[in-house]
Design a protein that fits this description.
Elements (H helix, E strand, L loop, with lengths): L13 H12 L7 H6 L3 H16 L5 H14 L3 H13 L4 H8 L9 H16 L4 H11 L1 H23 L15
Helix pairs in contact: 1-3, 3-9, 4-5, 4-7, 4-9, 7-8, 7-9, 8-9
């Protein structure tokens, strides 16, 4: 049970409803739980959901690498909701099951694709230490390019904020969704 009541269409004030409508009309087509939490601060919700739309759907990373990085963040913070949603999205984006299982078990997956490996190592290192060593940075730039690395940092930061939101307010994952073991 979440620590706060998530607003429903019936209980929303006009400014909350406006953000809700814009979110539904956007790329997501729905309003995720983190945005429902943020609707308690409509200005925050409006701005944060637009950033989320950008970093998830409109970067040069592409879905496979975005979802790989999001799983790294979800596992690092043991965010059950984020993991459940993005486990399904990672499957759709072509992230292999053995890679997902390794991330869930906090192991470095066997990644034969150099780009997958560079994205995984960059995201993992960034969430673990808040920094990226030169060799990890160079490998990522070589694999995806400078612009995509900038976008990857933003993606990791955004999904960390999402994880913090969902964890702080104890928002449970959708019923029947793929689980994530405790820390």
């Amino acid at each position: 049970m979440p620590r706060l009541v998530l607003p429903t269409l019936e209980t929303m004030k006009p400014d909350q409803r406006a953000v809700y409508a814009k979110t539904v009309a956007g790329r997501r087509g729905s309003v995720p739980a983190n945005v429902l939490v943020w609707l308690h601060s409509p200005d925050l919700a409006a701005r944060a959901q637009k950033l989320g739309e950008l970093v998830r759907y409109e970067t040069t990373l592409g879905p496979r690498w975005s979802e790989l990085a999001i799983l790294v963040v979800a596992r690092h913070w043991t965010c059950h909701y984020e993991w459940a949603v993005h486990r399904i999205e990672a499957d759709r984006a072509g992230v292999p099951d053995d890679v997902v299982e390794a991330i869930a078990e906090r192991r470095e997956p066997t990644l034969e694709d150099e780009t997958d490996l560079a994205v995984f190592r960059f995201a993992s290192t960034l969430v673990e230490s808040g920094r990226v060593p030169e060799e990890v940075y160079r490998a990522a730039v070589l694999a995806v390019g400078q612009k995509a690395v900038v976008e990857l940092v933003a993606l990791v930061g955004y999904y960390t904020m999402v994880a913090f939101t969902l964890n702080a307010f104890e928002v449970p994952p959708p019923a029947g969704s793929p689980g994530l073991a405790a820390p």
